[in-house]
Amino acid sequence: xxxxxxxxxxxxxxxxxxxxxxxxxxxxLIPEVLTRLDHESVNTYLNCLKDGEEKSNRIRLAIVGRxxxxxxxxxxxxxxxxxEHVQKxxxxxxxxxxxxxxxDEGDWIFHDGRTYENEIYSRLLKCCIAKSKANPSLDSxxxxxxxxxKIPDESVSEKPDNEFNACxxxxxxxxxxxFYQAKEVPVQDFYDxxxxxxxxxxxxxxxxxxxxxxxxxxxxxNTLQTFFGQESIYVVVxxxxxxxxxxxxxYGLAFWLETIRCHCKLPVDEExxxxxxxxxxxxxxxxxxxxxxxxxxxxxKFQRKVHEIxxxxxxxxxxxxxxxxxxxxxTDDEFDILRRDLVEIAKSRKQWNIxxxxxxxxxxxxxxxxSYGKPVVAKSDIAEIANNIIQPITDEEExxxxxxxxxxxxxxxxxxxxxxxxxxxPQWLESAFKCIITDNQFQKDLVHQTEWEELxxxxxxxxxxxxxxxxxxxxxxxxxxxxxxxxxxKFNIIVRPRTMSDCIYNRRNHNV
Length: 512
Ligand SMILES: Nc1nc2c(ncn2[C@@H]2O[C@H](COP(=O)(O)OP(=O)(O)OP(=O)(O)O)[C@@H](O)[C@H]2O)c(=O)[nH]1
Ligand SMILES: [Mg+2]
Hints:
The protein is built from 23 helices and 17 strands. By secondary structure, it is an alpha/beta fold. It folds into 4 domains: 3-55 and 117-197, no CATH class; 59-109 and 206-347, 3-Layer(aba) Sandwich (Rossmann fold), CATH 3.40.50; 355-429, Winged helix-like DNA-binding domain superfamily/Winged helix DNA-binding domain (Arc Repressor Mutant, subunit A, Orthogonal Bundle), CATH 1.10.10.10; 435-506, no CATH class.
């Protein structure tokens, strides 16, 4: 490893637009110790990674309900996007990094083009600010300990590759005394801090909002349940007119509420003591513009009908609020009410303000940088990456907690009982499911007509047909075939009969 001497900072510093940092500093967002970008700044950063914490306030909205009810339109209205030319959703559309909720007032802030990388830097910067404010006089002993632990073993003569050679940085002095006196710090940490100090941060406390817009078609229903979880706030969308006149008992509002209840059931004791049950559910009746009568009438009739539907179900304790809206006619003010309420609901939850280690953000950053866009990574590779970050995570249990937590908030898909792989991109998993569970893909293939017929008629998915389906997939789906099938079995999307080894049954007994 190579190290950078303190005086080298200034030459790098000259190349960067210092005025930006000074401006932010004058706004008192970033403590001076960080903006100096010197030895102490790096130490603050390292201390932050060692024992800093992040308030993990993330709001995840799951927009569900039967098809054509206006889920995508609602998503777009919430995001202040146009509802013209809205297309039927095919699977799930995940909207992240587009908006945040102000913690105090509940108003939403909209971002234009913030990347995942910017977001990670911004989160790290917030942790560093919190850390340096909590501990203005830096603990130099801790910093020295850290630096000593980074001094390379003198017995190792071969120097590893250095990606920063091009910057003409000084090579390390192997004498530990000179090393500390020269106040050297590892070059990577310094570059990390440069990126972080320039990150955008909100002046107020905000929480990122992710919106998952689900397809309402029956064909997608089996696979989409895989993405239901306790952490989401469920927004169940229904057409006001259909609900008031005759809620479809098979696939209408009652069906969706019952699905949420089944998937997200809490242990009995928690249910018993809480007035409200988790997860929160709000019901949004759309197409208010088609109701013949005034708004109050529409609301009253809708609420009465919903009460009737949930009267005998436990789900009534999950329902926090009901709204009637028009995606086409209402002004943005109507949606502002909904936006603020959603932040309020998020704030009322038990998991609001829980803290996670700042080093977890660094691992997220490392996974992003090391996966090169791969949607799936073996858990063993993740363990390796976690072992090699600035503040390594070597404890298997901590890595497990990191992955389980990120599964729960929807960053990655990871199941402890299928621990081989981690899906870094949930949208990829949903696309991969579609290669099997889809209405009309591949069905023109006459070669396997008999197998397709069997699948349509009695849900039998032969190994031969499965091979054919995967043959047409991209390498990244082919490669993880076994893992994909295991996930589908876990969620009963497909069932392998015990008595037959040569076939897999799809649970659905009609078209896939
Ligand atoms: N008049 C009126 N039309 C609406 C309203 N909301 C949605 N629509 C229309 O209903 C149709 C379906 O809207 P989407 O938002 O695509 O419905 P969806 O629930 O996302 O449908 P799937 O993706 O198939 O599940 C579109 O033609 C919209 O323009 C509303 O409040 N009033
Ligand atoms: Mg849609």
